[in-house]
Amino acid sequence: MKYSQIKRKASLMFNNQRKGFVYVLIILNLFLLYKLQAKQEEQVISEEEKQLYKEFADYIKKHKKEADTILLQKKDNKPSIVSKASKQKPPLKKSKKVYPKKKKYKPVIVDINTADSSTFIKVRGIGSKYASRIVKYRNLLGGYYSIDQIREIYGMTEENFQRIQPQLKITNKSTEKININTAKFKKIVRHPYISYKLTKEIFSYRNKKKTIDSIQQLQGFFTINDSVYQKVKYYIKTNDE
Q1: Do 113 and 171 touch, CB atoms closer than 8 A?
Q2: What is the pLDDT of residue 7?
Q3: CA count, 13 A, side-chain hemisphere, 232
Q4: What is the DSSP string of 62-127?
């Protein structure tokens, strides 16, 4: 291939696509290798060949600055080599769990003599079991005369009682009273505050004296003490009362 053809192709490649400057350098190297081989064989370089070599050198020197600029741009645009360590994803930050805001509790005041199970459940500290036990115990007693009686509910702890006490009230303290002069044995003995022995003593006294004149007479019975009497007096009556 003649020098003029090589130069023309190199010029076209450089002007049309500056990125091809690298190819020009490769062609130049091939050309120089070719001339070196010729030199070794002939040991003589003609004046024309020297002139050609000089023109190539001037051409390269003239456009070296532009070539350096192109190569620098290519270098800047070249994606950098990222190490495996840098490719690793950063550790995910644990996101804080967002819990829905709790609704403010509005205290509910419940009348223990009129509320049903569904109403008692609204009281903080009273579940379904406590609610049913409170209602059941109220029915057995014949009503509550004091909030302190809630302490007697099965399973009720003092701590829980202190918690629910401010939410309880009694509007009407009237209770259902048993006439101990006319009531049958089963009805009297069924009451939580009246034991089997006390019931027998009441009937024994009734058989002897026929009637009990006043509930205070029970204080003289052997099977009752003062603490029991202070409770049971709210649930019994005689003919005269």
Answers
A1: yes
A2: 59
A3: 26
A4: HHHHHHHHHHHHHHHHSPPPPPHHHHSPPPPPPPPP-PPPPPPP----EETTT--HHHHTTSTT--
Query: What tokens does 15 get?
Result: 């002007």
Which pTM was predicted?
A: 0.55
Cβ neighbours of residue 200 under 8 Å, at least 6 residues apart?
223
Mean pLDDT of 141-169: 95
Cβ pair 113, 170 in contact under 8 A: yes
B/e letters for 75-105, b = 16+ CB within 10 Å, e = fewer, are: eeeeeeeeeeeeeeeeeeeeeeeeeeeeeee
Q: Measure Cα distances from 113 to 68, 134, 144 in Å.
A: 100, 10, 6
pLDDT digits (tens, 9 = 90+) for 164-194: 999 999 998 889 999 999 999 999 999 999 9
CA 194/CA 46 separation, integer angstroms: 142
Round to whole Å and give the CA distance between 224 and 211. 18
Please, are residues 45 and 35 in contact by the beta-carbon 8 Å criterion?
yes
pLDDT confidence tier of residue 100, bands split at 50, 70 and 90: confident
Q: How many CA atoms lie within 13 A of 80 on its CB side?
A: 6
Tokens of 71: 């190569």
Measure the CA–CA gap between 108 and 125, rounded to whole angstroms.
11
- Model pLDDT, residue 157: 94
Q: What number of residues does the chain have?
A: 241
pLDDT value of residue 25: 67
DSSP 8-state code for residue 153: S
